[in-house]
Amino acid sequence: MAGSVHFSGVRTPLLIKKSCFSRFPSLSKSSNLIEFAASAVSSSGLFAAFGDGCRRRVLRVGCKKGVEAVLREEASENESSDDNAEKLACVMKFGGSSLASAERMREVADLVLQLRDERPVIVLSAMGKTTNKLLLAGEKAVSCGVSNASEIDELSLVKELHLRTVQELGLDSSVISGHLEELEQLLKGIAMMKELTLRTTDYLVSFGECMSTRIFAAYLNKIGAKARQYDAFDIGFITTDDFTNADILEATYPAVAKRLYNDWINDPAIPIVTGFLGKGWKSGAVTTLGRGGSDLTATAIGRALGLQEIQVWKDVDGVLTCDPSIYPRALPVPYLTFDEAAELAYFGAQVLHPQAMRPARESDIPVRVKNSYNPEAPGTLINKTRDMSKAVLTSIVLKRNVTMLDIVSTRMLGQFGFLAKVFSIFEDLGISVDVVATSEVSISLTLDPSKLWSRELIQQELDHVVEELEKIAVVNLLQHRSIISLIGNIQRSSLILEKVLYFPLQKYSKTILNHIHHYL
């Protein structure tokens, strides 16, 4: 049984604030109806419209049939596919640090070629810190003139990185030149409109993955390894319309399976798929799956194709017992359960996306986390079960920049429905609650930092929350706090927790970390 214990209230430094974005108007026009790239209209009932100002991106999706009908028809067609063909066997996902330069791309290509016999599907993030640079470029575009948009430093850095990489890999610049031109025009449009929405944010950051996959596929083809590039939003990744934090819908799996399998059977080539991206099922606009969403892309493909293993390649030797920047002696965890990995990701570990374990667990496909800088290291194997006698606690996780609310009211004593009133306030305001602790007369809760990033919960909104809660209780708002979580087998760790909890956290935090680490 996996579980976690949380210590809330430790003060941490303020993290960088993210901004909201608005929609570039030329992308909202639509003129031509074409067949949905993931599956034919006749089988899935999906169709798409492209905007005049967007040559490659799907902007609108209409549904002629229900999701259940899509699933039935796609499943039927998949069953009739060529069973004798050698099928794709694993997925390999590489993050931005693994693709940060031409040299790193060559090393990743070597890894892919070593596992070529396993017939992998490759999922890629954007190169290096490209996503952050694109976000900052969008922020700057809002406040600069149209004539200055081309001179935004972050745009120049993105162009320089990708053009240099293309040149060093011996590729033609036409591989990405169209995307770079379109990116610059988008920033000019943002500068002209002086506002941005989350919808445009997703479209803006999608350029990173679209360029990295095109470069990598072109390089593999150049060295003789036949590869085919795919944009996830064109092969059936259908999501909710929660821009910057969308979730994958069930219809994604049969659509992706059909497209990738059919292409593989008809003309085998290594699939190179953009991570992090999808398409809103109502809007048809490009969506993103939240920070680290490429992990979710990889596990979703693993489930869709029924692969043997999902490999997530990072820049560390697997999932570690602690953040090495806090505790340098952190060690790799050899085995985790899906539940433990999900807890780790949700409560602050940066190795995996919080939702990435769901598709793998549903289809019982093992996930292996490995180091692209040190491929010989065994990494961490995540599976349905593990030997619980090997480690009582598996990891310690710190989640920073947490907003905490202490809600105190004597009305809680013997009164029905008080908690319902409290949580209805958060529901009405669309704010996600993270960790909750209650006593006879008080509630302490934290707000989910990932939701704050995606919704840009500004001070006025926090004040509104407090104002509503103060109608029924006394409220104390505490910002820039942290949650320390102990992940492991709670049933066997009560004795350890009893010892640890007697330490005063704020005074002896480093001592606690060393003490707990002894049991990992």
Automatic annotation (TrEMBL):
Molecular function as annotated in GO: aspartate kinase activity; ATP binding
Q: Respond yes or no to whether keyword Kinase is given for this record.
A: yes
Boundaries of each ACT domain copy?
A: 407-485
- GO CC terms of this entry: chloroplast stroma; cytosol
Q: What is its EC number?
A: 2.7.2.4
Read off the InterPro entries from this record.
AceGlu_kinase-like_sf, ACT-like_dom_sf, ACT_dom, AK-LysC-like, AK1_ACT_1, Asp/Glu/Uridylate_kinase, Asp_kinase, AsparK_Bifunc_asparK/hSer_DH
Which family does the record assign?
Belongs to the aspartokinase family.
According to UniProt, the name of this protein is Aspartokinase
Give the source species: Vitis rotundifolia (Muscadine grape)
